[in-house]
Every structure is written in C-alpha cells, then in structure tokens.
Write a structure and sequence with these properties.
236 residues
Length: 236
C-alpha cells in the first residue's frame, strides 16, 4: 500500500556515482521478500499450534514495522525482510483457520489475488488506469477511511463493545461492502506500479527498491486477506 506521506523529493536524481533504483533490482528484492513470506507462512501452516499464541505480538510487530518503514524509507532494506517473516507467520495461521472452516478457500484466494495482480498490471501498462493525482487522492483517502473503520471496530471489540456488524456480515450488504474493499485494495496496486515506474524514471535511491517491494507486498497481503473474507461470506 503506497505511502500517502511520500514526497516527490524522494525521486530526485541522487548524487552522481550513487546507485539508483532499477526494475530488475526491484524484482529481485520482491522475490527475496516473497520467499521469506512464503517460507514463514508454510511453517505457520504446518505448525499452527506453535504460532497461534504469538499471533497478536506478530500482528503488532508487523504493524509497527510498517509504520516505521512509511516514515523511514531508508530503513526498509533492514525492516522489510523482518516484516515479511512476521506477516508470513500471521498469514499462515489465518489461512489455516479459514481452510478448516471452508476447505479449498485458501487456494482460491491465492489464485484470485494473482489474477487481480495481473489484471491491474495489464490495466496500468495499457493506460486503462492511470495514477493521476486525483486517482491517488481518491484511492488513498478511501484506504485511510477503511483503515479507520477497522481500527474503530478493533478497539470496540477490545473494550467489549459491539463492533460494526456489516464487516463480518454474510448478507447481501456485507458482500457488497467486501467487494468495495477488495476493489480499493486492488486499485492501490496501480499506485504501487506508479511508485516503481517513477522511481526508476527519476533515478530514486537504491533503497527505494526495497521500499517499493515492501509497499507492493503490503497491498497484496491486504488484498489476499480481503478476498479470503469475501469468499468466506459467499460460502455462508
């Protein structure tokens, strides 16, 4: 999920002789992060009893790492691998829970996430969807609004209050809301693609390869979780 605090100054050409961001470098960093996430997710999938008691600390740790990375992008070469491992462990446990409740849902969610990724990439490359300033503003504000609703719902649950029923409701309204959230998550991919393209075009610092890979991972993880939630609602 692209950082709304990201300034254009990040994309200024660095000092001559300094290493700059490249497409191949970004792809390589993405592969490293996804291998770490997949390996940790597989471990959690096969050892859920070990990871389950650590779920909340891992969630909190991943959240803190994401926040720090958003403000200190030059630290992402060190923080993003740790984030990938923490997020992988969390995803593994959550996926086991959904799979036990709805057999076959995980593979369907993975395939749908990949399909959305490639569709968004095709839409971006063909110019069907462009990351214009207005587009970014609408998507980022929508994303922040969704995050705020989730945060309020979580806090209400912590203090014993009744949360927003529509978030977990499997009625027609609940499914429509999930579809909207999935759409917003998917549109964040366009911003991530633009981040990578601009970084390469303007010769952003080398650490932006890690940050761009991290941002893309955050978006795809969110998209996967929302697709899981959507599929579970349709099965109910």
């Amino acid at each position: 999920m692209s950082n709304p605090l990201l300034k254009d100054s990040v994309f200024q050409t660095p000092v001559r002789g300094a290493e700059v961001m490249t497409v191949s470098g970004t792809i390589n960093k993405s592969i490293i992060l996804w291998v770490l996430l997949a390996a940790s997710a597989l471990y959690a999938w096969t050892h859920p009893a070990i990871i389950m008691p650590l779920l909340m600390p891992l969630l909190f740790g991943a959240f803190v790492l994401a926040i720090i990375s958003s403000f200190k992008m030059d630290l992402t070469p060190f923080l993003s691998p740790i984030y990938a491992i923490c997020e992988g462990l969390v995803l593994g446990v959550i996926s086991v829970y959904f799979e036990k409740s709805y057999p076959g849902i995980v593979i369907n969610a993975v395939l749908l996430t990949m399909c959305v990724l490639f569709c968004m990439l095709a839409a971006y490359k063909t110019g069907m969807l462009k990351a214009t300033p207005k587009f970014k503003k609408v998507v980022i504000l929508s994303t922040l609004a969704i995050a705020l609703v989730y945060l309020i719902d979580l806090l209400m649950g912590v203090f014993g209050a009744r949360g927003f029923n529509f978030l977990g409701n499997s009625s027609g309204l609940g499914i429509i809301i999930s579809l909207v959230i999935v759409a917003v998550a998917a549109l964040n991919l366009i911003i991530d693609f633009d981040l990578i393209e601009r970084g390469v075009q303007y010769g952003a610092p080398k650490y932006m390869e890690w940050y761009s890979s991290f941002a893309l991972m955050v978006t795809l993880v969110w998209l996967y979780l929302e697709i899981l939630r959507l599929l579970s609602k349709t099965k109910n």
